[in-house]
Specification:
Radius of gyration: 39 Å
Number of helices: 6
Distance between the termini: 10 Å
Helix content: under 10%
Oligomer: single chain
Structural class: mainly beta
Number of strands: 62
């Protein structure tokens, strides 16, 4: 009887490590850790067809809505088809989902906001709610005009004035000053009790959406029928008594008062709210502790003339500028009106107990002497009424982060919004054009069949200190043709606005302007002005209301992601993020109040675009400009693969978590759990786009959309598995391969398993075993090997066309020596 010795060598089918450190290759199969086998990455279940470049996926009733760009239009695709939802001109730079609203950043214009309405017969309905397309036309006028008056009491001067050449004694100065300012204050109080204003007031409006978020702010106007009052000198007559100028006669003071009113001549298409805000009056007369100025004007034998200048708080132009710098702080909401309702008659704006400017003087002065920093200046340029576009976006908890920022400056206020007095029976046409120092020109035209402007606001303002001039043009029967005027603007004391203020804050009259031969055309010249290395933060609840920003260094921000940190390193008072730029990868921290940001470099090699960044639970993967594939976690970047020329990266949570890598040569690689690498062929993936819940959507060259975790129940896949092993020392003792047992199953497979051997030179290998598989295999396969030479190295290779239910389990080779 022969003594037969058996030794078994088992090879478990597995994909190679991503660092290429073993002699295994796999094509179109992924490791199945739960079953200890390989299974095909088969044909996918196609859920929709999209048009062009995918941008955003949103889960809605009835299925997913996939937004894409093609042929200057924004499309939304769903299970049954696609429809165009907006003309955008160019491909959006970034997109985000804000509840039921999709926000798209487009170069050179304000963000496009589309709101989901409902799904009707399987077709989703979306509505454009961008503020620029939904604004009502709001104007302010003086509804009623009144003249209020009161007289000073007669009084005697204390000093002896024999010759009328002054000066007044300190006591008389005080008496005269209090006599006139008290009457002036009495008239103002009397007007306030009746809801009237005696001085110009700054009025503006803002529009709030259904969530109470400010989506638009108007530029303010100064409303008054006759300008600032109390600046002119008052004449008092002083009678002689006993050879001295002694008795001051009563002086009648008259003040014009008015009721401000708002009118909506063109309602909004949205059921939002217009809030009317009003500032304290531009009150220049100092009611307390002021000292009047006096001029001894002339005298006769019986009386003399005293010209009295009431004490002034400050120059009215400076006061208007200070109010603008602190506009939000000094304004009160006086009225709320549905933006969708037109007002046939002007609606009176309540007085709301507004006090004089003295009550807010400290707030006004707080903006003086504080230069606007570069970061805060950018925030102002990106905030309503301005807007911005961005090249990168990320959501992190309660924060929205935007990167690669381009401010989009607002259009100047139209002629209708500047008009403070109109003629309801006259047609008109007008234009307003703002010129900004960097060559930016923003102009718009408007017209109407009634409400022709008679007088304009005494204030022409633009919310940018670098605005140099605003040209206004009006044409109507009242102006007897086309007339225009160019207003030179100057910065406010706090450097937040540029303004023109008329003399004495008197209304501006277009009929007095020069005749213009050339009509101003609507235009929008916006020089490219991008803060490429800047990131700004906003609340998720109001993602376009930026609160702070930071310039992180060099390069251009291409992607922002939430950071992956260990629990011990997490700071609950801040949000931590990664910022990927073209020159490096940065860690960014933003405090919970969104008032402070800090950043530091964690990897000195950058990323070309956001397509090469993928967020995963264990970190953020990135394909760098050097060809490295790295995983950023904590405050370090770990190399996953030294070189992988990727076009796209995408993370799918399916199958234990997989990183999909679209290669520059058109191929696809899959990095599976355990850093196992699988080559995929014939997928022809054009784009990858991530979605919530760890889903990854694949877009084929034909526009077909499939989820990376899905797989069709039928279909065939060409697969390859090759595994080389060095046999233990027993191979040198003459042991030979006797039979092969393979845990393999498939409802349909057509291919061949070949086992080769060699003794150190793979080019001179010999076939140890080879057998075909064709059909349904439901049980382990055993193949007896004919007598063969002994080898020290063995390679198993399986190439076949298989169905998606195929499983490649362990391969056991039994060696014997007889």
């Amino acid at each position: 009887m022969k003594n037969t010795k058996k030794i078994k060598v088992t090879v478990c089918p597995q994909a190679p490590y991503s660092d290429g450190g073993d002699s295994v290759s796999v094509k179109n199969m992924r490791p199945d850790a739960a079953r200890g086998c390989l299974s095909p990455v088969g044909t996918f279940q196609q859920s929709a067809t999209i048009n062009g470049v995918p941008l955003l996926v949103m889960d809605k009733p009835g299925g997913n809505c996939i937004f894409s760009y093609n042929d200057h239009r924004l499309w939304v695709s769903y299970g049954a088809g696609s429809l165009a939802v907006a003309d955008v001109g160019s491909c959006p730079l970034a997109a985000m989902a804000d509840g039921d609203t999709a926000v798209f950043m487009i170069s050179g214009r304000a963000p496009l906001r589309l709101k989901y309405i409902s799904t009707n017969e399987g077709i989703p309905e979306w509505c454009d709610i961008s503020a620029s397309g939904t604004l009502p036309e709001v104007g302010f006028v003086c509804k009623e005009k009144h003249t209020l008056s009161a007289a000073t009491d007669p009084f005697l001067l204390d000093g002896d004035y024999v010759h009328w050449n002054g000066p007044l004694s300190d006591k008389d100065k005080d008496v005269v000053t209090r006599s006139f300012t008290s009457v002036y204050e009495h008239i103002a109080d009397q007007a306030g009790r009746r809801g009237l204003f005696t001085q110009p007031v700054m009025i503006w409006w803002r529009m709030l959406d259904e969530k109470g978020r400010v989506v638009h702010k108007s530029l303010p106007v100064l409303l008054s029928p006759s300008g600032v009052q109390g600046m002119d000198r008052v004449e008092a007559v002083v009678e002689q008594q006993g050879g001295k100028f002694k008795k001051v006669r009563p002086v009648l003071l008259k003040v014009d008062a008015f009721l401000p009113a708002v009118k909506i001549t063109r309602p909004s298409s949205m059921a939002w709210t217009v809030e009317v805000l009003i500032t304290p009056p531009v009150e220049t007369v100092m009611m307390e502790k002021g000292e009047a100025s006096f001029i001894f004007n002339g005298s006769t034998a019986v009386e003399a003339s005293l010209l009295i200048g009431l004490p002034q708080v400050m120059d009215c132009r400076r006061m208007a500028g200070l109010m603008l710098d602190r506009l939000e702080a000094v304004s009160q909401v006086a009225l709320r009106i549905p933006a969708s309702e037109a007002t046939a008659e002007p609606v009176i704006i309540p007085h709301v107990g507004i006090k004089g400017v003295k009550a807010v003087q400290n707030k006004l002065m707080s903006a003086v002497g504080k230069p606007v920093s570069k970061e805060s200046g950018l925030i102002m340029e990106c905030s309503v009424p301005h807007s911005f576009s961005a090249g990168a976006v990320a959501l992190a908890g309660d924060m929205a982060l935007w990167g690669n920022i381009s401010p989009v400056h607002c259009m100047p206020g139209g002629v209708a919004s500047l008009a403070t007095e109109t003629d309801s029976a006259t047609a008109w046409a007008g234009a307003v054009c703002a010129e900004i120092s960097d060559g930016e020109v923003l102009g718009d035209t408007s017209s109407g069949l009634d409400n022709a402007p008679v007088a304009l606001s005494a204030l022409i303002a633009y919310p940018l200190a670098s605005c140099e001039a605003v040209t206004v043009q009006v044409s109507s029967a009242l102006t007897q043709g086309r007339r225009s005027n160019k207003f030179k603007l100057s910065p406010t004391p706090g450097g937040r606005w540029a303004i023109y203020v008329s003399e004495g804050l008197k209304p501006i009259l277009p009929a007095e302007w020069e005749v213009s031969e050339t009509a101003i055309q609507a235009m929008c010249v916006r020089p490219e002005m991008t803060y490429e290395a800047t990131v700004v933060a906003a609340p998720v609840a109001n993602p376009l209301a930026v609160g702070c920003g930071i310039n992180i260094g060099e390069g251009k921000v291409v992607a922002i992601t939430p950071a992956s940190r260990t629990q011990s390193a997490w700071d609950f008072a801040r949000r931590h993020l990664y910022v990927f730029t073209t020159v490096g990868i940065y860690s960014l921290a933003v405090n919970s109040a969104r008032t402070l940001c800090s950043a530091h470099l964690i990897h000195p090699v950058g990323v070309v675009n956001a397509c090469k960044v993928a967020v995963a639970p264990q970190g953020v993967f990135a394909a760098t400009t050097s060809g490295q594939l790295v995983c950023v976690a904590g405050s370090a970047a770990k190399e996953i693969r030294r070189y992988m020329d990727c076009r796209y990266l995408g993370w799918s949570s399916a199958h234990g978590g997989e990183l999909w890598c679209g290669l520059a040569d058109g191929g696809t690689m899959l990095i599976c759990p355990g850093n196992r690498l699988v080559e995929l062929s014939d997928l022809n993936i054009a784009y990858m786009i991530g979605a919530s819940g760890g889903k990854l959507w694949l877009v084929g060259a034909d526009g077909g959309l499939s989820e990376a975790g899905s797989q069709a129940t039928n279909g065939f896949t060409d697969v390859l598995w090759r595994h080389s092993v060095a046999l233990p020392a027993f191979a040198d003792t003459g042991m030979r391969l006797a039979h092969v047992d393979w845990d393999f199953s498939s409802s349909m497979a057509s291919g061949r398993l070949i086992i080769r051997g060699h003794n150190g030179n793979a080019g001179r290998s010999g076939i140890l075993a080879g057998f075909k598989i064709n059909g349904n295999v439901a049980a382990p396969v055993r193949y007896r090997v004919p007598l063969c030479a002994p080898y020290r190295y063995v390679t198993a290779e399986f190439a076949a066309t298989v169905t998606n239910d195929t499983r490649l389990g362990p391969l056991t080779m039994t060696f014997t020596k007889q």
